[in-house]
Specification:
By secondary structure, the chain is an alpha/beta fold. It contains eight helices and 17 strands.
């Protein structure tokens, strides 16, 4: 019997700046249907910080439990099977999915097919199914070795953006003439802006797409080419408050929300709260005059999968994904962060907002 040594990157659930690595061991003698995956790479974006900030409220800490006061932030990436006790899951197969920031993941496979499997571990059974499916890359038509890192970075964010775009179109954009996206340089915002710009052109829609960003990122956001107008946070007074606005907020900054709500008043017809990029400024002294509506992507996904069927849903996402891949490849460069030290430094930089929006970050904790 051999022993496999593993490492988890854990953070204090109520004090995200505190981190520690936790060493564990697994035996190579697995229970029936168990599979041990070695995590090859995962992406790290501001979306992962959001997972940590709302981990308690949205159950993100429950996916990969750690010791009492600490949790493991989930990430999206790729892993290879190193030990399998399921006849239809082979050593060497590669799977894309939702992983811990760790070197390994032990899963209990269920609903196994050539397309992938569901992790049926007891603690995951009540969690949203969209997070529990692992895709066999050999059977995934959208997978290619050349775009693997872009898939890690953008694919989970892209599905959220796809669902927001779909929801807004379903609601006729709340009859707004201005669609405003905060934290316009963030990865999820980039994907949403690309989708909205494509929808606007394809359907000859008559609204204005506005990107709100920090002064240092204005030039980058303009160069993306998807926003009709780019404004820095300190120039919000330029917004035409007589127009009707739909706001998609990826920042979560209290003062930005307060200024937008105070400026737009009743012309803020829909305030969609998605991300918490500016997680250190979520609270403020003055109460917000009008609360927004938190967008929970799995709810819209489950609704559409019932209406379109799973394959119909996947086909629509796949077509939109390919269009986005073609558009984004030339706009982003990839940086790899190797080992525990590399992850720790990246995590610190991400927490403190020291991230270049032109860069996509990939972690290999096994490196």
């Amino acid at each position: 019997m051999a022993t496999i040594h593993t490492l988890d990157f854990t953070v204090k659930v109520d004090e995200l700046q505190k981190t520690q690595f936790l060493a564990k061991t697994y035996s190579d003698e697995l229970s029936s249907n168990q599979v041990l995956l070695e995590i090859d790479q995962f992406s790290f974006t501001s979306n992962n910080i959001t997972y940590g900030v709302v981990g308690e409220k949205m159950n993100y800490w429950k996916f990969f439990p750690a010791q009492s006061d600490y949790g493991i932030i989930p990430a999206w990436g790729f892993a290879n099977v190193v030990i399998s006790n399921h006849p239809d899951v082979q050593v060497g197969q590669r799977f894309y999915g939702y992983y811990p920031m760790s070197t390994h993941l032990l899963v209990t496979t269920n609903q196994v097919s050539n397309k992938g499997f569901v992790d049926n571990a007891e603690h995951r059974q009540a969690l949203p199914p969209i997070y529990n499916f692992y895709t066999n890359t050999a059977q995934d038509p959208s997978f290619s070795t050349e775009t693997e890192q872009l898939i890690s970075i953008f694919r989970p964010l892209f599905v959220t953006s796809f669902l927001i775009d779909d929801y807004l179109a379903e609601q006729n954009f709340y009859k707004a003439s201005q669609i405003l996206i905060t934290s316009a340089s963030s990865k999820t915002a980039q994907a949403l802006a690309c989708l909205l710009a494509h929808r606007k052109e394809e359907n000859t829609l008559n609204w204005n797409l506005v990107g709100l960003t920090s002064k240092k990122n204005v030039e980058f956001v303009k160069q993306l080419g998807w926003y009709d107008q780019t404004i820095s946070y300190d120039s919000m007074a330029q917004l035409n408050a007589n127009e009707k606005f739909t706001v998609i907020d990826f920042a979560g900054n209290h003062s930005t929300q307060l200024e937008l709500q105070t400026l737009l008043k009743e012309n803020l017809v829909y305030n969609c709260l998605v991300g918490l990029v500016d997680w250190q400024n979520l609270e403020g002294e003055s109460p917000l005059p009008k609360k927004g509506e938190f967008f929970f992507a799995p709810t819209q996904a489950e609704k559409r999968q019932k209406e379109w069927g799973l394959s119909g849903f996947q086909q629509k996402v796949g077509v939109a994904w390919q269009q986005f891949m073609d558009a984004v490849q030339s706009k982003i460069s990839i940086k790899e962060h190797i080992g525990a030290q590399g992850l720790e430094q990246l995590y610190s930089d991400m927490l403190n907002g020291k991230i270049d929006p032109k860069r996509g970050n990939i972690v290999n904790l096994n490196g």
